[in-house]
Design brief:
globular; 2 domains; about 325 residues; homodimer; 13 helices
């Protein structure tokens, strides 16, 4: 009987109070940054409020590299490309003597990138074009399920930011549709993003190769040709947003100057808007870089962002936890 | 008391039975075509069934012109372009003497199209490029809310097929996401498709102009440049599907040979698939045309479709009602 009474009181008093007090963003430290996200969501979801936004217009967009997962020491997709050169090498005997492939196969990233952008493009095209989408997707799947991050010694899909996963869940619980808008290859992300972020393929916007429809022996497929349909970075991001989403999002999360135009496009429109920039300032738990970094350069955004009302998220101060494996 | 008892019996026996017997497709005549749609939906939504498809993969695609609304005597978007030439003429004095504009302004469609594809392209580019997406959308909105169909004397958005609206609702009630995949301009459709079909902008795939992001006096906008990013017709449709949706739909509805590849791509994949072609064979209630028509040519689909298991919908025999205004 005592146990029953205890359960009864627990259910009556403790449980509901606990529910009411449930924190939607437990990995965020209390403070202005966390509060600004919660205040925004309350404003746009409160019926009768001047800032109320109907559910179909609750669109939030997220950059991927450096915003939802890490991007150091190199963009993970480039690390995939390097590994792919090794996988494909037996089919390309000429790579043994041809740069940048020769250096990649010898394990020298410095030599591989000596040729600058041209070398980078050669590596990307050799590993991202000339095959069907099915073959490409299978190679991404195999890699993402086995390759490990050099610093964290974890699968790349474990190097996602726990506080951002909470933001995705919190927004969706409040009627938002969440999209990725990334400079990364659209299909590279689609292979694992639904499982890791809960974002389905049709809500992923990224850099796209021109595709060619072909039917071989009665079997249709799409060939990834070595030409870009869209470079979804900088000025390309608002283009990708309009092409895929067709209306202006009300919230945007980025981390580098590659996200500047996406934040500008989102926050310049009328009505309540939210723009945020993840600042990588935690060398102990992740990496610290901004103005001088070649990967994820954040310079203009640090200066102009605050003037435009964008919130700078300090990973060091605002995030209690960065990765779930900590 | 008698009234109460009557209500009680009504609620207990009549109401539930009525609900169970409710016809999801009331504008469809009973028969094999209607049954094939219902059987497909039952098969993919019955848990434990060999054909069961989880909700995120329940993607259905619909061509627009000739499938969801009429396309005769000319594609409605082309009729918009013709009206737009008249609206824009004051800003283009040179059109008074320059074909195909001279003929359009004189009301001669025959003269306007005498130059074939080149004339058509000139009219489309003059009315669909060189302005921002906002300006273009506003011109579509004004037109679609006022212009009338020459035969039906109704707004174009009233010339939508009631049986197809029922299919859209029926599929969505069964966990499907419905997409348009059309040769029409993506933004032309987005202006009114959410209101008319319940399909939001992010679920519309269409022909796309290359966009250019620009910031004028601090205001961002997207310029529609006179170049195509994607011609979403024939071989372009599977490309548009992959770009925007990222997985193969399980059901596709089309009406012309422009939809052949989209039907082929959808129905060739493994697992239960549904392909349907709307055949315009009702000259009394709508229009009758197929193999010989320049608009909405249906030739290959009529021959090959049935061999591939695609269902040919006879508007005359399968549809009780074509338009809601009948």
């Amino acid at each position: 009987m005592k146990a029953f009474l205890r359960s009864f009181f627990f259910l009556l008093f403790i449980f509901p109070l606990n529910l009411l007090a449930q924190d939607p963003l437990p990995s965020w430290n209390e403070g202005a940054t966390k509060q600004s996200i919660i205040d925004f969501v309350k404003a746009v979801t409160t019926e009768g409020s001047a800032d109320f936004v109907p559910i179909p217009e609750r669109i939030a967009i997220f950059d991927n590299d450096g915003t939802l997962w890490s991007e150091q020491p190199l963009y993970f997709q480039f690390l995939f490309a390097v590994d792919q050169v090794k996988v494909l090498a037996p089919k390309h005997p000429e790579w043994k003597t041809k740069e940048p492939f020769k250096s990649v196969l010898a394990g020298s990233m410095k030599g591989a990138l000596a040729g600058g952008e041209k070398s980078l493009l050669a590596i990307m095209m050799a590993t991202h074009a000339g095959m069907t989408t099915d073959v490409f997707n299978a190679s991404v799947k195999e890699w993402i399920e086995s390759a490990q991050h050099p610093k964290f010694k974890k699968l790349y899909t474990e190097c996602v930011f726990q506080p951002m996963l909470e933001v995705l869940t919190y927004l969706r619980a409040n009627g938002f549709k969440t999209f990725i808008v990334s400079g990364g290859d659209i299909d590279f992300m689609r292979v694992w993003a639904e499982r890791v972020y809960g974002i389905p393929p049709e809500q992923i916007v990224g850099t796209k190769m021109k595709l060619k429809y072909q039917v071989v022996d009665g079997v249709p497929s799409l060939l990834r040709t070595p030409a870009l349909s869209l470079l979804d970075d900088k000025e390309g991001k608002p283009v990708g947003i309009h092409e895929h989403i067709g209306r202006i999002p009300i919230a945007a999360f980025g981390n580098s100057d590659g996200d500047f135009q996406m934040l500008e496009y989102t926050t310049s429109a009328s009505g309540k808007r939210l723009g945020l920039i993840v600042h990588h300032d935690d060398a102990d738990r992740e990496f610290a870089y901004d103005r001088q970094s070649k990967i994820g350069t954040l310079n203009k955004g640090l200066d102009e962002g605050p003037k435009r009302g964008w919130i700078i998220i300090s990973m060091k101060n605002d995030w209690k936890k960065i990765f779930s494996f900590e």
